[in-house]
Design brief:
45% strand; mainly beta; two-stranded antiparallel ribbon
């Protein structure tokens, strides 16, 4: 029996400005995105690209910032109805340079951490952010759909 499985690989990055206690968020409009609201920027891993290279590239494309030393902080993943698996590789970065600019993916802005819960967030941003900041957690997993949504677990 084959253990291979079709997989969609993506990334996100929580970029933190430690001196101002802010994170960079991207507003993704509902008209253009299935994961709409404020979220961390990121995107797809291209064929032949290292995961860290992909997050550096995606952050530059979507924000104009070049991040240095992105730190792997977790994985978000779930099975698709097609039998494929969707994997989001989650990073944090506190070192960056460049000039902030928005892109076709959405408007980007710095937000104080204590203001995040009051924003129009993408549906799982708060628990995802909790996992990304917890030293004892590294995986956010949607096991399967239920009548009330997804059964999710954090490991």
């Amino acid at each position: 029996m084959s253990r291979s499985k079709l997989t969609i690989l993506t990334n996100i990055c929580m970029i933190e400005d430690l001196k101002d206690n802010c994170v960079l968020l991207q507003y993704r409009s509902p008209e253009n995105n299935h994961w709409s609201g404020y979220a961390f920027p990121g995107g797809h891993v291209e064929n032949g690209e290292a995961f860290a290279e992909s997050v550096i590239r995606e952050i530059y494309e979507e924000t104009g910032l070049t991040i240095q030393n992105p730190q792997l902080v977790g994985i978000k993943n779930w099975p698709l109805d097609t039998g494929e698996r969707y994997i989001v590789i989650c990073y944090k970065a506190t070192e960056f340079s460049g000039t902030l600019r928005s892109s076709d993916e959405g408007e980007v802005s710095w937000v104080k951490k204590d203001q995040i819960p009051s924003l129009d967030l993408a549906y799982d941003m708060l628990p995802l952010m909790e996992m990304m900041e917890a030293p004892d957690k590294s995986e956010f997993y949607y096991r399967h759909r239920t009548e009330d949504g997804w059964e999710k677990e954090t490991f």
